[in-house]
Amino acid sequence: MATDYPVRPGRHCTFLLHAHLVFVTKYRARVFTDEHLRYLEQVMREVCEQFECELVEFNGADNHVHLLVNFPPKVTLSKLVNSLKGVSSRYLRRDFPEIRRYYWRDARLWAGSYFAGSVAGAPLTVLHHYIEQQNQPA
């Protein structure tokens, strides 16, 4: 298996698991500036580390973010996603008070749904390139 990433050892298994995650803002509101995106990357990297995951790639635009996450089999993706969205929303509200105007009546920044795709068929370099290009004009 040719890969850019080493197989990770676990306690009872070895693994190489990657997920492509996409989160969109509620109602696709155009919320994020470059400063917000840099901040979100830092926060989401820290959340991933708490889950023993690695944030391999991060990028986004004014109304969504893309993440490429390397995760161990013991991590439930839905729990990781809930934590990523919840912590990032809470920290953004705390550290960027001006962004509160985008929090709707139910105090949610992110849409309730998300995209999660397993990354197996395409080389990870292709996905890296795709995510890197997300914030560039067409």
TrEMBL record:
Q: Which SMART domains does the protein's record reference?
A: Y1_Tnp (SM01321)
Pfam families found in the cross-reference section: Y1_Tnp (PF01797)
**Biological processes annotated in GO:** DNA transposition
Transposase IS200-like domain boundaries: 14-134
* Molecular functions per Gene Ontology: DNA binding; transposase activity
PANTHER family, per this entry? Answer: TRANSPOSASE FOR INSERTION SEQUENCE ELEMENT IS200
The protein's name is Putative transposase
Organism for this UniProt entry = Micromonospora viridifaciens
